[in-house]
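Q: what sequence does this backbone want?
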């Protein structure tokens, strides 16, 4: 009898031990008290209310704001354009940083169709700090209509006076009704001004990828347009690239965020920038005859502009000081 009871006690204790071990070894599921797509721990990082699914009351769940719309779950109107995030077709302000850590840009699209503006604040740190505050006024098909910008030079050398100047691209009519663009480029070296023929379907070198924005996207689509690089005009080169962009694939793009790694389904865009042979001997030798530059971008496969996010894109750059160089900036969205 005692032997039988000992066996039973051992069996019961064994079962309890197995249950306790299973309890402690089971994965702990993150709690999401308000069912908004963010765990309580993630809400603490962002400062959102873990008991309120829509902390700012703009009609979007906190988790969707952070992971889907890329808006601020603590602000009703992330881009401060007068429209709430749920009503705004382009509700976000995004920061991009190039992988070299030299250039950052803060982008926001403002206004409805008919009054579209792309606002970009670009900062370049190469010893001296150059900041360009762009406002590009866009046509409804996301081509450039005109531009205002302020450029600032913050010199590392304290003996040099910092500089700030205003520039613009202004459309004007030619004698025969053709579209021309009046260009004003300020610099600490002086003001450059010119009037040039302007193709109707042009973007600038820093915002070329926005030409594909707010459009239904699918693999196989192509676009042809022009890209304007005003520094080339200042240097006496042809300022336009001829661009052919194509959506070549649908891929998964990983993004590191404050809340951990996230993967996004995105369209891969490849763009070929073609240019005539450069006059400058260095650029001509470096790039060859009839040069082509191959660029890339990734845009989330959203259902519309509210959820179409440019995750990553490249732009070319040309420099003549302190030494001549050609390269690429590879920008990644920051979250």
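A:
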């Amino acid at each position: 009898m005692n032997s039988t009871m000992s066996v039973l006690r051992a069996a019961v204790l064994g079962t309890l031990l197995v249950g306790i071990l299973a309890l402690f070894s089971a994965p702990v599921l993150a709690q999401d008290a308000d069912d908004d797509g963010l765990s309580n721990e993630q809400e603490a990082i962002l400062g959102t209310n873990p008991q309120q699914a829509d902390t700012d009351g703009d009609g979007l769940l906190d988790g969707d704001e952070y992971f889907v719309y890329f808006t601020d779950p603590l602000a009703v109107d992330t881009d401060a354009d007068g429209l709430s995030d749920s009503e705004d077709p382009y509700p976000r302000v995004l920061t991009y940083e190039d992988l070299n850590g030299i250039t950052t840009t803060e982008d926001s699209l403002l206004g409805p169709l008919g009054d579209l503006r792309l606002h970009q604040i670009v900062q370049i740190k190469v010893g001296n700090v150059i900041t360009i505050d762009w406002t590009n006024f866009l046509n409804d098909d996301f081509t450039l209509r005109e531009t205002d910008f302020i450029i600032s030079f913050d010199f590392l050398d304290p003996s040099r006076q910092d500089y700030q100047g205003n520039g613009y691209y202004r459309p004007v009519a030619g004698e025969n009704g053709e579209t021309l663009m009046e260009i004003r480029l300020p610099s600490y070296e002086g003001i450059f001004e010119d009037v040039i023929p302007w193709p109707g379907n042009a973007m600038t070198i820093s915002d070329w990828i926005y030409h594909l924005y707010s459009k239904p996207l699918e693999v196989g689509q192509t676009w042809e347009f022009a890209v304007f690089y005003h520094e080339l005009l200042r240097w006496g080169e042809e300022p336009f690239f001829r661009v052919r962009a194509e959506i070549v694939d649908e891929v998964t793009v990983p993004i590191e965020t404050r809340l951990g790694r996230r993967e996004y389904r995105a369209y891969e865009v490849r763009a070929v920038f073609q240019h005539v042979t450069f006059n400058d001997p260095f650029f001509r030798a470096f790039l060859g005859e009839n040069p082509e530059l191959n660029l890339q971008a990734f845009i989330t496969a959203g259902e519309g502009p509210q959820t179409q996010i440019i995750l990553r894109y490249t732009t070319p750059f040309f420099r003549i000081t302190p030494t001549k160089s050609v390269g690429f900036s590879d920008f990644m969205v920051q979250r």
